[in-house]
Predict the structure.
Amino acid sequence: MLALLKGGDRRTIGRSDQVAEIVCNEPKLFPKLIAGFWSEDTLVRTRAADASEKVTRRNPELLRPYKKELLGLMAETKQQEVRWHLAAMVARLPLTGKERQVAISLLSRYLEDRSSIVKTFALQGLADLAQNDPRIRTHVTEIVRESVRNGTAAMKARSRKVLCTPEQV
């Protein structure tokens, strides 16, 4: 299955939509997809992250067995494409209080990334975590409001959207 993610242009998602559909139809293949996060091939890592993020929108419980590994990867990876997909997925993980703090810390670090897309997904990830944790809601709301004023164009747009959505922050 990971062979479907190889080759082509770095700026495209290749066949990640096809792989996501395959895994959605056969969830037992998810472990093979997750293994792609650690591929030596940059394109495979990128596309495995993309496909995993799409699959877990529909089926977030598939992430449960990989919580520790994904939080570890989130802390270690420098690849921006993997970072932004991890930022989107982290709120789907069943986190303990301590793990939630780790996730918040990592997403806060992502706000300093050089990639505007990573920053924007980090904002969304924080907002998603705050949705289920009133203890961090005020802090995250401050971060989002600051991003409306001083973020990149993408961060400003996402922040306005988050602030206008009642179930968000």
In short: The first helix runs from residue 16 to 25. Residues 10 and 49 are 14 Å apart (CA to CA). The mean pLDDT is 93. The chain is about 65% helix and 0% strand.
